[in-house]
Amino acid sequence: MAMTPETQSPPDAGSADSVAPLARRFLWTDTASGVNRLIIGLAVLCLVLFAVDLVHHRHTKVPGEEFTGFHAIAGFVSFTVIVVGARLLRVLIRRDESFYAPYGVDAEEYPEAGTQRLNHEQRPADSLHTLRDELLGRTRQPGSENADNGRGAS
Amino acid sequence: MSTVIAPPFIYLMAALVCPLLPSRWRALLLMGIPVLALLVLLAYPAGNHAVLSVVGFELTFMRVDKLALVFAIIFSIAALLAGLYAWHVRDTVQQVATLAYAGSAIGGVFAGDLISLFLWWEGTAVASVFLIWARRTPAAFATGMRYLIIQVLSGVLLLAGLLLHFQQTGSIAFEHLGLVSVGTWLMFIAFGIKCAFPLLHNWLQDAYPAATVTGTVVLSAFTTKMAIYALARGYAGTEILIYIGAIMTLFPIFFAEIENDLRRVLSYSLNNQLGFMVVGIGIGTELSLNGTAAHAFCHILYKSLLFMSVGAVLYRTGTSKASELGGLYKTMPVTMVCCLVGAASISAFPLFSGFVSKSLILDASASNGYYLVWLALLIASAGVLSHSGIKIPYFTFFAHDSGKRPAEAPVHMRAAMIITAALCVLIGVVPGPLYSLLPYDVDYQPYTFDHVLVQMQLLIFALLAFVFLMKTGIHPPEVRATNVDTDIIYRKWIPSVFPTLVGAVVAVNARARSMIMALLGSGYGNIERLTRPGAPLARGWSVASMMFIVIVLMCLLLVVNLL
Prior knowledge:
heterodimer; A: mainly alpha; extended; B: mainly alpha; 3 domains; two-stranded antiparallel ribbon
């Protein structure tokens, strides 16, 4: 879902095999109407929670906590203050990525060796069958550095 | 039960044997040893065991009681899950380091005296640095060096403190110490370094993102929680810890909000959660110490889960930077769901594990009259939702589409994440078993209408604030940048002072030399003036003037003699 004012439609919105099966249930998060319904649901939930505070007397331990909607307002206000404060902090502490280079990991790429950068189309057919293969040490893709190419002990 | 099969030594022996085994066996070892060690430690009766007499000191390697057991159990579970997550790793260095590190941490929580604690303390430092160096890049080497220096500094302070403490009290027992002497203050600071106290915290955010994909998952579980255990054992009820903890919960939130590297966001989040635990230790009542232990237990699980999901993204895309990610839910849905479970747990949504543990600490602070601290923890709870609950899953898996379509995480990583997520939900729904592990009896009921209501109010209205801030554009965007923290002091300012310092020393040295040389030179000149050929001291005198001088001297001698 994209809630920023400047939205762009994703390159291949929901074409059948570029999306994993489980993810199809979440495709509504990319549509404006889906997001709007989510936000409206959130707003309704907020109203309900606030309304409960009006009719229900809470058992409180801290003086001042019995103020109506204390936790609701505290949540909203503290979140806003934190985000705004963080934005101000960024002005002070932001530096270029290469600020600590070459002694900091921000400026360098993660080495290829520790990853297996596959795309969705290249995904291995993961199933119980291949799990058994994995446990027996049989290779899945030739040349992959995470397989031992059937040699077993290495 | 003899020393050799104490659980920490099982790990160490496995670490020694590990390099000799073929790769499949190593991966099995990484999962089998935690299971074996867990069974062994559950079989230990309570009390002191594995006592070794070394140069006159009685070292107790297995002091088993409920506080130590709860930490050791979660360490074993974390080691098992990390071993499953790291099934694909063939790098012997990482596997040996993981075993040694986990073993040292478990040894640390079972240490009954300060000297064996020190041994395991240093063991965790030396073992864990290899998880950073295993990345094998120049920056990782430098970061690992910084990490090692700070961790060993912590060990050295611990050693100094324990020696002073022994000199003063004659005892090396690891019991409640309190801030009574210089020795205990030194040990307090040593524990604080590993616990990421404010101003001593930066090694955490520096080093953890610099480790390997699986290394960070392992790193996050042990060092800081061992330090929490040490604080709980030695300094429970120390009032200053309440305020240190409250500060620790607040300041990392701001840094986490604007950080781009997601693993660094999680490191700041770790710092924030440690603050909750430290507050619990500071309050010192049975409820709050229970809260600390429960929170450490739940935290290890959901923090590992979050690091695992971000690690899976890193594994598949090669980056963990929020500015480079987005829209990944389409092809990594399982990872996304597990990340959401972790995010809900850390935010303390009802039915997740954070809810049943964090509330113990908040309740303890309210009951004991620390109202401002309670308010700080409440604000921090909303803050945790902002950076861990929302930012991590949203900017990784949703938000703007980065165009990346990485494959789903491999089977073993998915299995590890799903098991961890299931544990988070299970603990949240049925907290009974967790509560039975806690050091003191628990008569706390987390699921009351009031408690669920106020927590939902806090979280849902904070979510509303997020939507509001995103729609109005006030929310800071994710940009490629580094943010500096107090580590700029020892990473930039002090090193930048070196050239000017060295230049000043060289200049002073040069000036001093030139002054002394000038002095010597003028001295030589004077001597030369008197003794060169033709000068007064080198001229030959005539015999007549010599005789005249001699007669004058003899007359003077006569006069002096007659006086």
